[in-house]
Amino acid sequence: MKTIKQLLQAKGYAIKSIGPEESVFDAMQLMAANNIGALLVMQDNKLVGILTERDFSRKSYLLDKPLKDTLVKEIMTHQVAYVTPDYTNKDCMALITEMRVRHLPVLDNDQVIGIISIGDLVKDTISEHQFIIHQLERYIYSTPR
Questions:
Q1: Rounded to two decimals, what is the model's pTM?
Q2: For domain 4-142, which CATH number applies: 3.10.580.10, 2.40.50.140, 2.60.120.280, 3.40.50.300?
Q3: Which of 2, 13, 20, 97 could serve as a FRET partner for 63 with CA atoms 20 to 30 Å apart?
Q4: DSSP characters for the chain?
Q5: Reported confidence tier of residue 126, pLDDT bands at 50, 70, 90
């Protein structure tokens, strides 16, 4: 089973982030422009929260004010579930299921080095299963009958 370090090496380390004092309107524009479902909320190179589409859909309407006047810090998730590079896909799937989240920042010595989504984990799991199936098929068809 792959570690998150290996998964990030294949996927890439790029993250998209926004500051807590930025507007939710700007955050939604950034998400839309990058076709992503979450932004890491960073202040002074430190992870202070995460803003997801779920945060937006569930919290922004409660404030009853324009998106341009709503700050990221008002609707972001402050307590962020995260992983380190030595976690495995299986570890992350368990955490995502338990915490009911879709994105996990990857931290190494308190520094953000990437982000893993449930889509990344599912894609990796499918790839691993396809490899196993292929190996089993090769074994079956190469065995004399």
A1: 0.85
A2: 3.10.580.10
A3: 97
A4: --BHHHHHHHH-----EE-TTSBHHHHHHHHHHHT-SEEEEEETTEEEEEEEHHHHHHHHHHH-S-GGGSBHHHHSBSS---B-TT-BHHHHHHHHHHHT-SEEEEEETTEEEEEEEHHHHHHHHHHHHHHHHHHHHHHHHHS--
A5: confident
